[in-house]
Design brief:
The chain is mostly beta strands. The chain has a single domain, classed as Tachylectin-2, Chain A, CATH 2.115.10. Helices cover 3% and strands 43% of the residues. It contains one helix and 24 strands. The longest helix is centred in the N-terminal third of the chain and has 12 residues. It is globular.
């Protein structure tokens, strides 16, 4: 089991922060640009996740569950006919023609200033949106889903981290699941065909009791290291973040990853020695270097509070500041639903930023709206 040494880390933060001098993270203004990809030619009526991975002049956006069909006015996507969808594939249920458990598009927009308008979905030979990482023969669509995490590109090769989940019959929300672990798939950007990397006979590089590495990926400017962030829930049900690193030419080799084991920093080949660097994020987040701030910026949803927050650090491993609230999402519903508001998947898309990172673009997902929702954040 991984170690939880957050108290040691917090002490290190308090000492180090006294000698740091990046710009203070403050929000000047927020502009709501609304749900994205709504106007599309594929009858796509909802998707979540929304990681963005830089290509050569374009960006690959990687999504989780994607729904094809039409929406019934006044009816929740998750309660067709008034009944919760439960764990099952939604294809053919109510107004849903098809559910795809992960998809992608190529975006050509260079900024989020006017919303995201110039894109094309990755499709099959018939022009239909298709999964980037298909289910395997032994993964039944009513039981297993492959959901998006972050990724990176080197030359023509694209690497996508993913999480594998098992669907549950019941729970707090209309769709419930447990995480089985996370893995890595590799493909060529010309064909968009991805195959999972196998380790020890499994396509999961990290198992259920280990951090779900791939929650965020940061490639250093010299491309000497890839930093891979992973999230794991501890015994107190607190979501904690851990950090691994690997050389780009060894990204497919699970044995070559090392884990931050001390904030000096020190790196260990043993995942059991990994230490937590921050907490309060769901599985998804982003980490990038922000030139305007002069430091690294992490963006994530703050648990399930509806708050989208940012943290700063002088190095990829920290010390990470306390969260600063960028935006609080207020869910507007026509009528009450039998589950609490669910706002998640907060992350920045640094390739869209302006003025050296003074203006950044962030997406989140509200479960009923179920589109990546874009906000523009202007920093002071």
């Amino acid at each position: 089991m991984i170690r939880c040494q957050f108290e040691v880390y917090e002490a290190w933060v308090s000492v180090c922060c006294s000698r740091l001098d990046p710009k203070t993270l403050r929000v000047e203004a927020i502009r709501d640009l609304g749900p994205q990809f709504v106007d599309n030619p594929h009858e796509m009526i909802g998707q979540d996740g929304a990681y963005s991975i830089c290509l050569n002049g374009e960006t690959l956006w990687f999504f989780g569950d994607t729904l094809i069909g039409h929406r019934v006015p006044g009816e929740s996507l998750w309660y067709p006919g008034g009944h919760p969808v439960g764990p099952y594939d939604m294809s053919g249920k109510g107004s849903i023609k098809h559910m795809i458990n992960n998809t992608g598009l190529v975006l050509r927009d260079k900024t989020g200033r006017h919303g995201l308008k110039s894109y094309r979905y990755i499709c099959d030979d018939r022009g239909n949106i298709r999964p980037l990482i298909p289910l395997l023969a032994d993964e039944h669509r009513d039981e297993i889903r492959i959901w998006c995490l972050d990724g990176c590109r080197f030359e023509d090769m694209v690497y996508l981290y993913f999480t594998k989940v098992s669907m549950l019959e019941s729970g707090l929300f209309p769709v419930n699941f447990e995480v089985l672990g996370s893995g890595l798939a590799v493909g060529n950007k010309k064909l968009w065909q991805f195959e999972r990397v196998v380790y020890d006979g499994s396509s999961l590089l990290w198992k259920q009791n280990e951090p779900r590495f791939g929650a965020a990926v940061l490639v250093d400017p010299k491309e000497e290291w890839i930093y891979v962030y992973g999230v794991h829930q501890d015994a107190a049900k607190v979501q904690r973040c851990y950090l691994a690193r690997v050389r780009p030419n060894q990204i497919e080799n699970r044995e070559k990853y090392t884990y931050l084991s001390s904030p000096e920093p020190r790196w260990s080949p043993h995942i059991s020695e990994a230490v937590s660097i921050m907490h309060g994020m769901p599985t998804e987040m982003s980490v990038s270097f922000n030139p305007y701030l002069g430091c690294y910026l992490a963006v994530h949803s703050l648990d399930l509070t509806g708050k989208i927050v940012g943290r700063t650090a002088p190095e990829p491993w920290g010390p990470w500041s306390e969260p600063v609230v960028f935006h609080t999402v207020i869910a507007h519903r026509e009528k009450p639903l039998p589950y609490p508001p669910l706002i998640y998947a907060g992350k920045e898309h640094p390739e869209l930023s302006e003025a050296g990172g003074k203006i950044i673009y962030v997406t989140y997902v509200e479960f009923e709206e179920y589109f990546p929702h874009l906000i523009e954040v202007s920093l002071t």
